[in-house]
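How a chain folds remains the central question behind the approach discussed here. The record that follows shows the chain in one-letter code together with its fold in token form:
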Amino acid sequence: MPSFDVVSEVNLQELDNAVNQTVKEISQRYDFKNSKTTIEWRAKDKEVVIVADDDYKLSAATDILQSKLVKRSVPLKNLKYETIEQATGGQVRQVIKVQQGIDKEQGKKVIQAIKDSKAKVQAQIMDDQVRVTSKSIDDLQDTIRFLRSASLELDLQFVNMRN
């Protein structure tokens, strides 16, 4: 029976490269001169931590990071920005979580979107992905087209297309 998997993954190596490029650019920019702005990628926790002198420098560093991520085709939809908090020495800190895979809540939303499309397919959550099966490959391709145009909170990729 034909099937494909819906996944939501971020290339962590590209994310790491973007963080390194951002750190380099911040060290060279005039508006960050004598600033203690740091950006750190914590691979174990899958999060980026930005610490800056004030809100302006924090938002500027975030903008630089986002531009580097876009250039490297890292989906910004998979970044979850936590609230800005005070750090030591009057600095501000923001943690950006990187979401890998589709959790149960997101999986339910994807399945509900597929059901709302009235396609003749079956969808089920399997670990951190959603498997979609159908008797017709055309229905699967229509479902992929529908999911690409759907406004979901995650960037979706479609893998393991099988006949």
